[in-house]
Amino acid sequence: MVMPDARHRDRRNAVLGSVVFLALAPGVVAGVVPGLITGWEVEERLPGALRALGFALVLVSAGFLLHAFGRFAIEGLGTPAPVAPTRRLVVGGVYRFVRNPMYLAVVGAVAGQALVFGSLELVVYGAVVACAFVAFVRLYEEPTLRAEYGAEYDAYRAAVPGWIPRLTPSNVPEHPV
Predict the structure, then answer these.
(1) Poorest-pLDDT segment among 1-10, 77-86, 97-106, 111-120
(2) Where are the alpha helices (DSSP H) in 25-100?
(3) Pick the CATH number of 5-159 from 3.10.20.30, 1.20.120.1630, 3.40.50.150, 3.40.50.300
């Protein structure tokens, strides 16, 4: 099946916009700032098993982040950036387990780096980032989604937890991609 030109263009623009936002937001918060804090220097006294756990957490977090960004572009036909939001409420993929996988992935990547580098400063930074994310979600994102999607968002919010993932996927119907 060939996509109509307008829909193909919309998807392409959503993917490109998401890639740019990925580099600017999570790339800075979970990449540039941790590098500035640690100087990319590993604390050698930290047990290797903890560093390995941290590295695994960074990799898993990166995978979830990329998946979540992809869902915004492909399913939602938009980006996570407030200036170019999705056209549809994104409820598929990892969003069937938790409403805020991007924020959790970024905090997970910072926490993983705290273990890799043995950095208490990154632990504190990660806690500040987590608090900022929760405040942003409560004060801006949830009211905006409720205003935009109404009952669809309310049903999704009732079925899927915000911060602690479900063990099984929700039964909220996914949009076709």
Answers:
(1) 1-10
(2) 26-27, 33-38, 48-74
(3) 1.20.120.1630
Cβ contacts of 56 within 8 Å, gap of 6 or more: 112
| Neighbour count for residue 172 (Cβ, 10 Å) | 17
Q: Are 76 and 70 contacting, i.e. CB atoms less than 8 angstroms apart?
A: no
What single DSSP character describes residue 127? Answer: H
CA dist 130 and 106 (Å) reads: 9
- Helical pair 5-24 and 48-74, crossing angle rounded to 10 deg: 150
For residue 2, pLDDT beyond 60: no
Domain boundaries, the chain: 5-159
